[in-house]
Model the fold of this input.
Amino acid sequence: MKKTKSPHRDVIHDRIPATDSRFSELIKVIEGLHDYNVLTYTVNRDQELYDLIVKKATDVMNTHIGSLMLFDDKTMKLKIVAARGLPKKVIDITYLKPGEGIAGKVFQNRKAIFCEDIESDDRFKRKSRVKYYSKSFVAVPLKVKGRVVGVLNVNNRKSHEPFTAEGMKILTLIADEAAMTIENRRLLRRIEKAYMDTVATLAKVLDERMPSTMGHSLRVADIACALAKRMGLPEDRLQLIKRAALIHDIGKIGIPDSVLLKPRALNAVERKIIQNHPRIGSEFVDKVEFFNIFVPIIAFHHEWFNGAGYPMGLKGAQIPIGARIVAVCDAWDAMISKRAYRDTLTPHEALEEISRCSGTQFDPEVVKEFLKMTRSRVRKTQPSLRRLA
Ligand SMILES: [Fe+2]
Done:
């Protein structure tokens, strides 16, 4: 019997056809866009994001020059916030009003401009005083919900080939995504500001309830942030520590006046009541979106390094580093501040006390850095205490 050839055999054994160059170019573009999209969501600083957008646009469009311009609501002008291949002088002095220059026109008309040869294009020839650094270019608007927030420009392809309609579409995709990311960050900043205002209000409410400790939270927040910075914690952690420190005692709002405002030392029962404040505070913030990231610091700022603290009796590294930092700064400010029921300690006495409690109440690493930082601060403000060095 004659063997018939399986219809699938040819498919299986055939070599995968060589990818044509346009297809491989497209794959490269998609891969590039994907990689950059992932990066876009991981950068922390605005400038990093702007640089990344320009890098993405120039890489994907294969151009020597690219720039991102954003509209400044205060000056009412477009300003270059990131660029590649442009002289610094040009970046520094370029401010365009809507309608001025190519980017200004793109901004005003909300439409992309595509030009193959600026010298022969009647739209730009000797019509503007703006000096063009390119022969061919594409400039597309950054649009968010129909509003233009900036312009993305790329100029001079490395291959010296003209831009294509596909190229314009790809740049439009990049610009749309860039606009969305920039806008999301602006919105996030607005929300962050609103919630920081709320944190500050909560701290103020607490201060007003306990006039004897007025400003304590603010001072602890400042010192804790400076100390965390010295200890090499990343920027986002510094902000978290600062904000959490501002409301570390927020649970005291739930403590009765008879205990909280008692002008004398507390008895054992009253001490137990006030020791509830980390739990009350952490339960309160845990219920609020945006605030629940502060729980570890609020809940554990009275834990001791040796496990003898409250409320959980955590020890060593079980206590979050932010809480270990706030614990030292909290104790320092409480010791050097006036209290109705005890004398104020001098900075020297307070430093001695913190040093004495290193390894028991406080993390020795935190204490070591705190002593270095505070001794130099104290020496600057109180030269008579030079002997502390
Ligand atoms: Fe506290």
About this structure: The chain is about 50% helix and 10% strand. The domain at 19-186 is CATH 3.30.450.40 (Beta-Lactamase). The radius of gyration is 31 Å.
